[in-house]
Design brief:
Chain A: Keywords: Amino-acid transport, Cell membrane, Membrane, Transmembrane, Transmembrane helix, Transport. The complex is a heterodimer. Chain A is built from eleven helices and four strands; from the N terminus they run E-E-H-H-H-H-E-E-H-H-H-H-H-H-H. Chain A is mainly alpha-helical. Chain B is an all-alpha fold. The chains are: A mainly alpha, B mainly alpha. The interface between A and B is large, with 49 and 50 residues.
Chain lengths: 294, 355
């Protein structure tokens, strides 16, 4: 069966690839939104920390023989701790300043992290193989489903939904949302807001690292892998707006799928389609799809 | 709106830091002639530089970045808008000017005008879209749109893709004066850059510039005074983009090639860094910042080997290859400790010693 002259299996496999990318967009924009909500900082370093997650997975395998599953848990923890250190030592000092300083500071942090890994590993890709359990593919009859890609989509969706549940439905999430609205008042109720801010940043970047480990077997690991991604994720954030958690997830996945479909029908535009959609959204709905202007 | 007005009082300059801009220093009793004298000396030094043995092409490269940073500063320093997409105007104009001079065979002045117009046109599109959103979204939109242009330049046939546009001829100015001699080119380009800088100074001190400052300090207030702030922001954006385009076009003419480096987002980062190091919202800061950053990029290897021999730490020898890392460290230091930049700090020091 063909759709617009494209064989169905080819179409479905691009769709799946799009979903995989969309899952990364969703996880990264979710982290950006959570961090921005509480810290008022746009974390440019998100891409670098995503890269760090992937490189840590590779390092764990290379130097310590730790397999994928161990690193899938360990790398986010390590990056989360690094995030806590970054927040405690640097970000803390700029909350009262204009937004732009947050962007510039995290840009500096990005350049340092990328610079360090570039001087060690260069810019060429590091090889990382798919974990044995998920190697191979399943024949669904109408398409061949690579197991690992399916796992990436399922795992990231699970993490995204768990995050959504935590923020929207639990007591902790209620504190977090209250802190986003009015940190002073929440503090007056006896909640340790500075600690909450630190942990939120740690959690946000841990999410990026988790995405990084998931990406390690499908995207070539290199010190520069985060920087192109983060700019696309910025566009995703502009399209979706940072006001809604579920909105970030849906926008991320949706744009990934659209990007995947563009690869089928008009490959030349696949790297710019997200930006084009951003332009259209800005023209039609300046506040973003799920936006409330902050 | 609430968070915005709160952050506005602590704008890029901060309430206290905004005093020591050049105009402010003059009001506090620093003779108006001092900055004028310094600019005069700088100009004399630039005129004499090639005779003193400086390599003209290198000085011009620094000057192009200085003009680029001054144009960028017009937005961040005087209007309070952080554009993260200025590479698009700088590099885009370089490609247009280069293509016009190489393929269409136009004379250099036409090439520069076309480059400037290209910068303005790209700036109009990017600006009109970006000012639809406030604050940090503005920066993200400019970054995303500039990245779009980067991908366009990567794929478009006339840019030469990864190889870039090579062998741009210098041609004859007005069809008469050949620019193939480095010295002739130097003085022509210097004159254009000085004029562009004068335009920026004039703009900053004009009523238009005052309105921009009002928007930066308190946009809701400017709106309530009856100013169509979106229109003024767009005009400032287009002017800044046009001058960035001029800088990019001159750079393409001087160096004779144009590559993807100039449209890459890291170029936008570099110009932000230059302005930040020199001092946001100071007239001379971006010039100083451009000089410091270009010198640093060129001399980092030497500094590294000097540090290695001075301290005995072998690692410093590899400093030359870690420009990115050093740039990042400077960013972090500037934001955390040194927000006024070199000229901002100097002016603060100067006005303090007078009281």
């Amino acid at each position: 069966m063909d759709i617009f002259g494209i064989p169905l299996p080819a179409m479905l496999s691009q769709l799946l690839l799009g979903l995989v990318n969309g899952a990364f967009y969703a996880m990264l924009s979710l982290g950006l939104a959570v961090i921005f909500g509480l810290l008022n900082v746009i974390n440019f370093a998100h891409g670098a920390l995503f890269m760090l997650g992937a490189v840590l997975a590779w390092m764990g395998m290379e130097y310590a023989g730790l397999n994928y599953w161990v690193m899938l848990l360990l790398a986010p923890v390590v990056v989360g701790v690094i995030g806590v250190v970054i927040e405690k030592t640097m970000l803390r000092w700029i909350y009262k300043l204009d937004h732009i300083y947050g962007l510039l500071l995290t840009l500096g942090i990005t350049l340092v992290i990328e610079g360090v890994f570039r001087s060690i590993y260069g810019v060429s890709g590091l090889p990382y193989s798919t974990p044995e359990l998920l190697a191979g593919a399943t024949d669904l009859g109408f398409m061949i489903l690579p197991n690992y890609r399916a796992w990436v989509v399922v795992a990231s969706l699970a993490v995204c939904l768990a995050t959504w549940y935590m923020i929207e439905k639990t007591k902790l999430g209620a504190y977090l949302r209250a802190g986003t609205e009015n940190p002073k008042l929440v503090e007056a109720f006896g909640v340790n807001v500075p600690l909450m801010v630190t942990l939120t940043y740690g959690f946000g970047v841990a999410l990026a690292a988790f995405a990084g480990v998931l990406a390690a077997p499908v995207i070539q690991i290199s010190p520069l892998m985060g920087q192109n991604l983060i700019i696309v994720v910025f566009a995703v954030v502009v399209i979706g707006g940072m006001g809604s958690i579920l909105g970030s997830i849906v926008t991320g996945l949706g744009l990934g799928v659209i990007e995947g479909l563009t690869k089928v029908f008009y490959p030349e535009a696949s790297s710019t389609v997200v930006f084009l959609i951003m332009v259209i959204v800005l023209l039609l709905r300046p506040a973003g799809l799920f936006g409330r202007e902050k | 709106m609430d968070g915005q007005s709160a952050s506005r009082t602590q704008g890029p300059q901060g309430t206290q830091a905004s005093a020591p801009v050049e105009g402010g220093a003059a009001r506090r009793g620093v003779p108006r002639t001092v900055p004028l004298l310094l600019y005069g000396l700088l100009l004399l030094a630039l005129i004499a530089a090639p005779m003193a043995g400086a390599y003209p092409v290198f000085v011009l490269k620094v000057l192009c970045f200085a003009l680029f940073a001054c144009a960028f500063n017009l937005l961040i320093g005087y209007t309070g808008l952080l554009s993260f997409g200025h590479a698009a105007f700088f590099g885009g104009a370089g490609y247009v000017a280069g293509h016009a001079m190489k393929v269409w065979g136009v004379t250099p002045e036409v090439g520069l005008v076309l480059g400037t117009l290209a910068g303005a046109a790209i700036g109009y599109v990017v600006g009109a879209l970006a000012i639809r959103r406030q604050g940090i979204y503005f920066s993200m939109i400019t970054l995303a749109l500039a990245q779009m242009l980067f991908f366009f330049c990567l794929q478009a046939p006339f840019t030469g893709g990864e190889d870039g546009l090579q062998g741009i001829p210098r041609g004859k100015l007005f069809g008469v004066l050949s620019l193939s001699d480095d010295l002739t080119l130097y003085y022509v380009a210097l004159a254009i850059i000085v004029l562009a800088f004068a335009l920026i100074v004039r703009t900053v001190h004009s009523p238009f510039g005052q309105i921009l400052k009002a928007i930066k300090e308190n946009e809701p207030r400017a709106i309530s005074l009856g100013y169509d702030t979106d229109r003024f922001k767009l005009m400032a954006f287009v002017l800044s983009a046009a001058l960035s385009g001029l800088a990019g076009a001159i750079k393409a003419l001087v160096l004779g090639f144009e590559t993807l480096t100039d449209v890459h987002w890291s170029m936008s980062g570099t110009v932000i860094l230059m302005t930040l190091v020199g001092g946001l919202g100071t007239l001379s800061g971006p010039i100083v910042g451009a000089f410091v950053i270009v010198a640093l990029e060129n001399k980092l290897g030497d500094i590294g080997s000097f540090l290695a021999s001075a301290t005995g730490v072998e690692w410093f020898n590899s400093l030359g290859e870690s420009v990115t890392m050093v740039t990042g460290v400077i960013f972090v230091i500037c934001v955390l400790l040194f927000r006024r930049g070199i000229m901002g700090e100097l002016q603060a020091l100067f006005s303090r010693s007078r009281h």
